[in-house]
Amino acid sequence: MRRIFHKVLIALCLSPILGSLPASVAFDRVNGEGFASRSPVLASRGMAATSQPLATQIALDILKRGGSAVDAAIAANAAQGLMEPTGCGIGGDLFALVWSAKDKKLYGLNASGRSPLSLPFEYFANNGHNKIPSYGPLPVSVPGAVSGWFQLHQRFGQLPMDEILAPAIDYAEQGFPVTQLVAYYWNRSVPRLQSYPGFRETFMPNGRAPQEGEVFRNPRLAKTYRRIAKGGRDAFYKGDIAREIAAYVKNQGGFLSYEDMTAHRSEWVEPVSTNYRGYDLWELPPNGQGIAALQILNILEGYDLAAMGRNSAGYLHLFAEAKKLAFEDRANYYADPAFNRLPVQQLISKEYATERRKLINLESASKRYDAGNLALRHGDTIYLTVADEDGNMVSLIQSNYRGMGSGMTPGELGFILQDRGEMFSLKEGHYNQYQPGKRPFHTIIPAFVTKDGKPLMSFGVMGGPTQPQMHAQIMINMIDFGLNVQEAGDAPRILHSGSSQPTDERMLEGGYLSLEDGFPLETRRKLVQMGHQLRFESGPYGGYQAILRDEEQGVYWGASESRKDGQVAGY
């Protein structure tokens, strides 16, 4: 394994689409894998990787001013809330993993908000809802991101918050050019959200969404950021901002109240891990889905994937089946631990993986699995990671859930409230059943890797249920297939969809596989013969950022996602 990581450091059927798929995706590079979009970025003092180049530069500026990795991450996240409202903002939630070089310890933060205390479970059935709506006031839960900023800053910050938020405030007032993918998703959101009060006034200057390259300003958000910079956490949760949010939601027929805002708290939680071939992958426990990646890796550890090969039908088949197994447990057991005794340690144990592995047929795809008998894709997101000169590393993910969120755009505040409450189950007795004051199941998950108790890599992959699948694939690409930190993200990805969900949907026909361009025709043909349904899809494969630490040399190796607008940079 040391040698491998040394290399790291240095319902369409198959037949109608086979003819249109290229045999591989290649870049004209003199070395490295043919699918790699670029070489890793190297720097020794500090590094940032985000899905918005201007946010990456802001993070580096904060580091150069003496800010910590956490200061830079907050500054970048604030900028992305302005520049990528299609995936994040202070109307949403936040999760983070932080490696403290001083403490030699990994910390976990759950900054997700809860459902309204005044909204009873019976309301939905009494008003004809068999699921929680995707948009409008009903899926709105308390936004936890600002609380997360201040929790992180209190423990790990160096610079004052007004200095950290200053770059985002300046861009909000002066404007910034909208990038390609953000413009695409922004325009796609308009038909769904433009009818909600406040949305057009804030996000549709001149009566339409901005196009790629157009300069956008958000003076409303600038004012809100100034209030937060001056008044701190309480300005958002106990001051006029909270009152404005509550009044707006009430006027739209919703239930989120001032009392819900004042009662909010974020929580430091203990990360959990599994060891995969000598490397520890760390995730946050539920209410997120991070442990699904651990379950997938535990199951796959029983097979010689390196001998099978990265493009083989055998590997892809096993990956899909392991994912199906993990997602059955995800659908049944992942929920707010404050309302349930969750069997987390059982789910991520090697013994449990051994039993679940026995259910896989090596020759054919399963139509369905049941969740383990234990005693006890529509979201959009931003992921960023920052590392500083002292060796501190931050893995941070933040989201409004469904693209630009619920559409609820309160008054003059300049941001949209999340629709994460859609992720509750309305099945009575379900672990993830809707209850007042409860945190919904979450898809956004940061990740971190250690080796022999030392920090190795901070990484994440955006994209709803894509995320745990891609966390596992990044690990497999690097450890089993010997790819470097950039190649591991650029490699063609496998995505299985159609599993059972924590929102009551059940997998009965095996779901389907989507494969990015680059997998051979023979592999696709073999997978169909094994009973997998294949579909051609463009765009659902997630967005990756990573920073890997070579402690011996004191060098950071960074990677950014070729499928997004992002950038990794260091100094």
From TrEMBL:
Q: How is it modified after translation?
A: Cleaved by autocatalysis into a large and a small subunit.
Q: Its catalytic activity?
A: an N-terminal (5-L-glutamyl)-[peptide] + an alpha-amino acid = 5-L-glutamyl amino acid + an N-terminal L-alpha-aminoacyl-[peptide]; glutathione + H2O = L-cysteinylglycine + L-glutamate; an S-substituted glutathione + H2O = an S-substituted L-cysteinylglycine + L-glutamate
Superkingdom as given in the UniProt entry: Bacteria
Per UniProt, what is one Pfam family of this protein? G_glu_transpept
Query: Might you give the EC number(s) for this enzyme?
Result: 2.3.2.2, 3.4.19.13
Q: Which InterPro entries does this entry report, sorted A to Z?
A: GGT-like_enzyme, GGT_lsub, GGT_peptidase, GGT_ssub_C, Ntn_hydrolases_N
MF terms from GO for this chain are: leukotriene C4 gamma-glutamyl transferase activity
Signal peptide, first to last residue:
1-25
Q: Does the keyword Signal apply?
A: yes
Q: Could you tell me the keywords of this UniProt record? A: Acyltransferase, Glutathione biosynthesis, Hydrolase, Signal, Transferase, Zymogen
Q: In which pathway does it act?
A: Sulfur metabolism; glutathione metabolism
Family the UniProt entry places it in:
Belongs to the gamma-glutamyltransferase family.
- Subunit composition and interactions: This enzyme consists of two polypeptide chains, which are synthesized in precursor form from a single polypeptide.
Family matches, as PANTHER family: GAMMA-GLUTAMYLTRANSPEPTIDASE (AFU_ORTHOLOGUE AFUA_4G13580)
Task: Supply the name of the protein.
Answer: Glutathione hydrolase proenzyme
Native source species: Microbulbifer spongiae
Tell me the name of the encoding gene.
ggt
